[in-house]
Structures are given as structure tokens and as C-alpha cells.
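Model it.
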Amino acid sequence: MDAIGKLYSSVVVVTMNYNNTINGITVAWITRVSINPKLIAISIGKTRFSHELLNKSKYFGVCVLKKNQKNIAELFGTRSGKNYNKFENVDFIFSERNLPIIKNSLAYIECEIIDSFDAGDHTLFVGKVLEEKLFDDDSPLLFGDHRILEGK
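Modeled.
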């Protein structure tokens, strides 16, 4: 047990589309960084295929998962989109900017990448919020104590 593990956050799937290659990655390291303008930051491991795509992309989407969507978090967090279409058996639609939105997610946020920063073995991508939609008022799936915490 450590103090860092006590920093809880919502579990999301960050989505991207670069040259018609769609992908998504489960992320728990996400935070708001500005109110005006609305900015959020996501932390993506440098060895991930999603990192490669985000470095080339102009936009990313954020699908906030509901407390009962651990299976979606596991799907997007355990396989590489380089060799596997994670969306193959997932119900989704495309946003106006052609980013995948997972149906039945709690909320969706669409961002324009405005900056990125080196952060050790990760990169912080800062996104300006362009669209946000709340689909449900349920509780989000949480990450804390170094694991996904299923809701009841």
C-alpha cells in the first residue's frame, strides 16, 4: 500500500482516429487542468500504439465508463490496437470529428490536442474541450488502490 494509490479517478476509454485507423485505450490518469478554457490532460504510456496515434492526431475522445463497465475497461486496456480491432464487438457511433463514441457510456468529451509534455515513461496530452455530453447520471467506474473498483 502507498499514498499514490489513494488518488482515485474515473476510468475512461480514450478514443482516436488517425487516417481511418480507430483505436481506444483504457485510461485512469485523466484530470481537469483549466476551467476557462476547459482543458483536460490524459497520460499515455510511450510504448502504447495509442501514443503513436495520438502523436499524429489532432483530436481525441473520452468515453467515461459506468460503474458496471469493467469488461469494457479490460477490453481496451489489455490488447493492443496495433494487431486487434478493439471496436469489433463494441457498440459505438462516430462523432462529428469521426472519433468513436462507445454507446452506453456515462459521458463523452471530445478534445482538440493543444499540447503535449514528456512525463517520464508517459506523455501528457492536453486537450481543449470542444464537445461534452452526459448520457446518464449513474456513477463512474473508478480506479484506486492500483486497480479498477467495480461499483454496485
